[in-house]
Write a structure and sequence with these properties.
The protein is α/β, with parallel strands linked by helices. It contains twelve helices and twelve strands. The strands form three sheets. The protein has a seven-stranded parallel sheet with strand order 3-2-1-4-5-6-10, sandwiched between helices. It folds into two domains: 2-159 and 196-222, 3-Layer(aba) Sandwich (Rossmann fold); 166-194 and 224-268 and 283-291, no CATH class. Helix content is 39%, strand content 20%. Residues 116-140 are annotated as: Disordered. Residues 3-211 form the NAD-dependent epimerase/dehydratase domain.
Length: 298
Amino acid sequence: MRVFVTGASGWIGSAVVDELLTAGHEVTGLARSDASAAAIEAKGARVRRGDLDDLDGIRLGAQEAEAVIHLANKHDWSNPAATNAAERAAVHTIGEALAGTDRPFLLASGVAGLAQGRPATEDDASPFHGPDSPRGGSENLALEFADRGVRAASLRFAPSVHGTGDHGFIAVLAAIARQKGVSGYPGDGTHRWAAVHRLDAARLVTLGLHKAPAGARLHAIDEEGVPTREIAQAIGRAFGLPVTSIAPEDVQDHFGWIGTFFGADLSATSTATRELLGWTPTGPTLLEDLDAGAYSVR
């Protein structure tokens, strides 16, 4: 199958490309830089130069492919409006390009905001609609194309997709701890974060490409929820730092933009996804990765 992947050189995307190539697919990855293009080509995949603002290039990439996996995101926390607008425009462009083809379209999403007071499940519809909502309401926008002949499915990744080389949320928290000289957690530290190892997440994406029906919501979740206090304690052990509670009113000042996420309960289950895809995570847990030094590599 010819698969077009945005975010192909990214943390999750690079592992997905490896899985797709191993499964015998022909992969084309979107690359915005020479370094990204070289990394994609080194794996044995093809390259389409461009970025999320290159809608003509994205349209052509989708039209030429037999499936699209959209993992790219600007992640510009200083300008979320621009990030959301770019995400929505890219998803709309891909959906229109695939309309009426019955081709798979998988897009990255998350579990934030799906449930209150309990772990989120695949039955929880995203509450985010419209261009001004988080991610530009891209999950709901993509799933609307299921009614227009697109095998659209969402990939809801855990807030921690962990492993050696991760530069995501856990790496940011580790950097803040080193800078502050203390590994903090919000309040009493009982809020929980779902987690999954990067390679398990990549295997789920490939299984979803083959098996997910139109309209599916897939949860890339291994651990339902790791308490934020335990995350902070593991970071403290990794860097020899004291661990302390950060008062709720000081969370934003201490953690910056990531405080909003670290102070939220982002737990989720993946029971339905495991049953649908036959997916069984086998990688190390988040705390095992932290204790093994995965985030000590600078």
